[in-house]
C-alpha cells in the first residue's frame, strides 16, 4: 500500500520593517519590464538608467494581488512604460524596495503603501 502525502511550503510572513527601512524614502524612474501579480506580494521590475549610462535592475514589492484587483489596479501598469516610484529601501542595500507611490506618464499618482502605526512617516 502506498501513502500519498502533500505538504505546503512553509513560509513566514514578516513585518515590512524587518526587510525595508520604512523610515527612509527613495525614488527611482525606470521602464517597467515585468509586473507579477503573485502571492504574497505583487512585484514590479524596472530597468533604471544610471548617470553613467548603465542599466540597473530594480524590484519593488507591494500588497497582495487581491488588494490591487479589488481597487481596480490590476491592469493599469503597462510593460514598457516609464514610471517614477517612491519606496522604502531594502535594509541590506540591494536594489529592492517596498513601493509607496507610482507616478504615471500622464502625471497621476497612486499610493500603494498601507498605514503602519509604527512608521513615523504616517504621523
Describe the model:
- By secondary structure, the chain is mainly beta.
- It has a single domain (20-113), classed as Nucleic acid-binding proteins (OB fold (Dihydrolipoamide Acetyltransferase, E2P)), CATH 2.40.50.
- It contains two helices and six strands; from the N terminus they run H-E-E-E-H-E-E-E.
- It has a five-stranded mixed barrel with strand order 1-2-3-5-4.
- 15% of the residues are buried.
Helical content stands at under 10%
- What CATH calls the topology is OB fold (Dihydrolipoamide Acetyltransferase, E2P)
Rg result: 17 Å
Percent strand: 35-45%
Main pleated-sheet profile: 5 strands, mixed, barrel
Which structural class matches the secondary elements? mainly beta
Task: Annotate the secondary structure layout.
Layout: H1 16-19, E1 26-36, E2 43-49, E3 55-61, H2 65-70, E4 82-89, E5 96-103, E6 109-111
Parallel strand pairs: 3-5
Antiparallel strand pairs: 1-2, 1-4, 2-3, 4-5, 5-6
List keywords for this structure.
single chain; mainly beta; OB fold (Dihydrolipoamide Acetyltransferase, E2P); 6 strands; 8% helix; 36% strand
